[in-house]
Design goal:
mainly alpha; 6 helices; elongated
């Protein structure tokens, strides 16, 4: 199977992009505000696509731990809250901004690590190539739909956190 359609590989690709965006947000030589806008859109689109398309499908497979899937959703909420705190900070690069950035990095990296070790490895072991490719297609479509809807705006993130 081509890795470009495998839902596991698509999710991992987003995870690596998030890590790259963290590096840009930490760099005083980068456009930190632009990196934050890009990160915000990616994080929200990615999480919504996982929660609406991927996680429900994985729950139907034997040997995919439903508790881990539920825990992943809880960690999405924690990451969204940390993201909103950062987005609502007035001055990019201030001490407050840097502190809130590190809280976001910690929350998201914790989730990425756990998701990769539990949910994604479970999918690799228990879901064959064809359903993973089908899931990849719907994940990609939902993610694109969310990005087109400006899901990373402060208002959208605020709405997501208040659900």
């Amino acid at each position: 199977m081509s890795t470009e359609h495998d839902v596991v590989e698509l999710i991992l690709r987003d995870h690596r992009t998030m890590e790259d965006l963290f590096r840009r947000m930490r760099s005083v030589e980068a456009d930190r505000a632009a990196a934050l806008r890009e990160f915000s859109a990616l994080l929200i689109a990615h999480a919504r696509a996982e929660e609406t398309e991927v996680y429900p499908a994985l729950r139907r497979f034997k040997n995919i731990d439903n508790d881990e899937v539920e825990h992943g959703e809880e960690e999405h909420d924690e990451g969204n809250e940390a993201l909103l705190d950062l987005l609502e900070t007035d001055e990019v690069g201030s001490a407050e901004w840097d502190e809130k950035l590190e809280s976001l990095v910690q929350a998201v990296n914790h989730h990425l690590d756990e998701e990769e070790r539990t949910i994604l490895n479970g999918a690799r072991e228990n879901v064959s190539a064809e359903p993973r490719a089908e899931l990849g297609a719907v994940f990609r479509e939902e993610r694109a739909r969310q990005l087109a809807a400006d899901c990373g705006s402060v208002d959208s993130v605020r709405e997501q956190v208040r659900k």
